């Protein structure tokens, strides 16, 4: 898409969103897809996932497995509204191997089965991270060689367990500091910067068909961190390391302006030959929420999604949970919340309407 077309899309979308907020009937979380029968689709009845399909961008959500088991409306919305799912926690190392050598796959297997039953793809999250590591690993004293073997085995076993069932793996998560230097994690300290290329090679060996991503936050626009990541991906591609994509998490806060150069940032990864995705979108607000903040939130979601829609090889847009009933935000950012598309009673917010309109406007898309 040319820059002129991008500008036109953004302007037109803003107008449609403004109009729709006044006139559209409220959509529901359990919207089902209508059969087409050769007639133009009635977009009001289409789920986010189906609207995304018309644009070539999958629309996903992170899934909280406790909520999925206990809350029927949550399960219904997760099943019908989205075309891909990401386990919010159950594929992380502390969840799958709480005791050394003894694996707990059941919750993650349940999500994979849920996705299959609902014709959804799965983003695997995440293999190499500094956080949510099991105690036996962080408290243990291992030599660098031992730690390298432990990491190799973790990747081989986990990717192997899910072989053929994962669409995209977040192989390496949050490896950078905001200034563009590599994070001083246990992996960097003990194994040196080569751990990143090794992790991608090991994951590729275990499942050659999965798309392998590096994922991070605060890399939505062009900045020191996203540029360092760009340089790393460029080097890895030149060295034929099997890296397929860059995940841009998209955790925003209405009190800071949403970057308006997301498409410029994602577009430069197109040029490296890798895919991109928005992998963890949410937009938090300082409580209590007023109408201005609610509309600013809708705009921020829209800016994130449009950045993806405008980028040729941006393949998916995932929200980090869809209801305020279950959100990581209040527990981490004191006094903030309301970050999701639906409120705690599953009522859609302006942000939900806004991203529907973006998808409708963008079809037929890429
Ligand atoms: O949403 C996740 C929350 O339930 C966990 O307690 C937390 C632990 O660090 O991780 C959250 O998910 C994070 C994701 O895995 C990586 N990017 C940031 C997400 C929000 O913290």
From TrEMBL:
This is Beta-xylanase. Residues 1-29 form the signal peptide. Its EC number is 3.2.1.8. It catalyses: Endohydrolysis of (1->4)-beta-D-xylosidic linkages in xylans. Pfam families: Glyco_hydro_10. Belongs to the glycosyl hydrolase 10 (cellulase F) family. It comes from Kitasatospora paranensis. InterPro entries: GH, GH10, GH10_dom. It comes from the Bacteria. Keywords: Carbohydrate metabolism, Glycosidase, Hydrolase, Polysaccharide degradation, Signal, Xylan degradation. It is an enzyme of class 3 (hydrolase). Gene3D superfamilies: Glycosidases (3.20.20.80). Residues 45-358 form the GH10 domain.
